[in-house]
Specification:
The complex is a heterodimer of chains A (425) and B (65). By secondary structure, chain A is mainly alpha-helical. Chain A has 18 helices and no strands. Chain A has helices spanning 7-12, 15-47, 51-79, 81-101, 105-133, 139-168, 170-191, 196-199, 226-230, 233-262, 267-295, 297-311, 314-317, 321-338, 342-350, 356-384, 388-406, 418-424. In chain A, helix 3 packs parallel to helix 5 (105-133). The longest helix of chain A is centred in the N-terminal third of the chain and has 33 residues, at 15-47. Chain B is built from 2 helices and no strands. The interface between A and B is medium-sized, with 29 and 24 residues.
Chain lengths: 425, 65
Amino acid sequence: MGMSFTLKSYLKHYVWMIVSIGVFVQMIGSALRNIFGILVDPLNVNFNWSVGEIGIAYAVMSLTSALSSPFSGWLGDKFGARKTIFFGTILFLVGMLWVSFMNNLWEFYLAYGLVLGFSQSLIGVPIVPAVISWFRRHVGLGTGALMVSWSLGPALTIQILAISFVNYGWRNTFWVLGLLVSIITFVLLIFFKDSPEKAGKKPFGWLEEDEDSKNNLLSSFDLSKQRLIYRTDAFWHLVNIHFWGCVGHAIILVCIIPLAINKGIGSIQAAGVLSTIATVSILSRFFFPIIGDKFGSRFIIFISFLGQGLSVLILLFTDSTFGFYVFAVSFGIPYGGEGTVHPVINRQYFGQFPMGRTYGWQLFGAGLGMALGGIIPGLVFDLSNSYDIAIIISCVSSLIGAIIVIILPKTSKELIDWNLSLEQT
Amino acid sequence: MFSIINKKNKSNPIIGLSLMGFTIIICLAFLIYFGAWVTEKRLEVREQKNPVWWENTVLWVCPLH
């Protein structure tokens, strides 16, 4: 081995700068979603818009983000993550400023739903493949470090935003936050490089033997070869799996607090159940990709789906605070691992090929799943005066995902021989 | 060109696309059934008075309502 892999060389690698920027950028996406929950009440009071009317903006945002994800992935592959995120940040700034000055409901739909929804996919989709491209090996470690931000984001931003809303008002919070986050992102993008080759560096985990491989540079891939990925069953299964998994947990995330309160749990304890899910899921978001990278991600995704599906059944039988917290731990662990191993399995199936469009399509499935799962609890409760049917739908959705995971091909070998593919071009 | 893809993985993603089709059908069935259920409830509240075009359509589409 030409390189000595000491702990110091690991820690000094430029990849950690890339991962840190990735974590910040991912947190913007989670902040955009979380800000909505605390925005409902001020909009309701200031403009007299109903909760249902305000909720449509969230649905528009989720759908816009989901539908534009494949396009954002394509932009990332074609023009690079840095330029795509830069464009997304400009849209983010426009959307945040527009919301802060809006006075009409249609403006809210356009600014929050369309502009911020599109900016969310432009920022959130290309960042993951770009960060992963910095890892030649240990891609599970990179994914885990990056995915922790999905849980850390809400934990850090909700409190800050809530305090700011109370002290400075929602309009000031929006424009200050939009300006501040945009400036920080623009500065961070100066240090962000799309790939190690663009930075003139070796990726993390690089070995001398990799010099012999023909597909060791991202630029060596012909992007039109993405069609080979579209021709695999695994590609479609992964989009499908992501959809069912997100339906499964979106239902629970939306209904867990009203369900707990409905069963006589205090509102603070009920909120604590959601916090426990978020906290516990930090562990699995970090460790599951590492385990998946080491031992094969198919099994860990299967366990996550099975666990997510079966754990929700606890909610059918419990009405005690203790029971809800047992649920939070049993659900939080598999929930954290359910969607976070996808970048790892993408690498195991499709190798070093630029992952933007593949990952974008998976987030398309995830976004539609979140949108559908999000409307089910309210719908079911209005019809049956109970959340039981919603819980059963959540369970079945996760189990359908688990069944599709079983028929995924083994991860021990890449599905496409890119060396042969490159020779033919 | 198809030989580029490993033999174990078919070049035509029949299973993958079929399962996507299954997902789409399940979701449509779900939306139609629940849409009809909601419509039925709305009409119950209004004592079946003045159903609008989309309420009639949703009830007509759903075979269980």
